[in-house]
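Quick one, tokens below. Sequence please?
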């Protein structure tokens, strides 16, 4: 929102609260959250991202956010840019929007996230220590 004052004013006029969004900004995460929550050396961090090839494949309320994010940070899932989603070991991008990635049934025609979750499960299994005895 800091980089789009017009959007912030529009949301304020519509009485839509945006205070929490500041905690999700790159500036806050990189400047405050990350320094106060360092990565644990005992944890394997994996990240994934999503993006759809056509704008009209996004859940309708994410079409405007997709356009805005595309201008500011590039390819995105309607809520999170791929650039922002990358941390730890980047696993890759899936042809899914944010709603599809979390398997929230808001879209009538949606892509299923099972290939993505199968890959995540396999990577977690590979990263976990073997059970002994």
């Amino acid at each position: 929102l800091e980089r789009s004052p017009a959007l912030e004013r529009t949301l304020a006029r519509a009485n839509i609260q945006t205070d929490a969004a500041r905690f999700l900004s790159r500036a806050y995460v990189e400047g405050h959250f990350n320094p106060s929550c360092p990565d644990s050396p005992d944890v394997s961090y994996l990240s994934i991202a999503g993006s759809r090839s056509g704008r009209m494949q996004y859940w309708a309320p994410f079409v405007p956010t997709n356009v805005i994010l595309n201008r500011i940070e590039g390819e995105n899932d309607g809520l999170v840019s791929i650039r922002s989603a990358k941390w730890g070991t980047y696993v890759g991008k899936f042809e899914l929007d944010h709603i599809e990635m979390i398997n929230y049934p808001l879209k009538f025609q949606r892509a299923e996230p099972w290939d993505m979750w199968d890959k995540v499960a396999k990577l977690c299994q590979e990263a976990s220590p073997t059970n002994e005895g």
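The beta strands are 46-50, 89-94. The mean pLDDT is 85.
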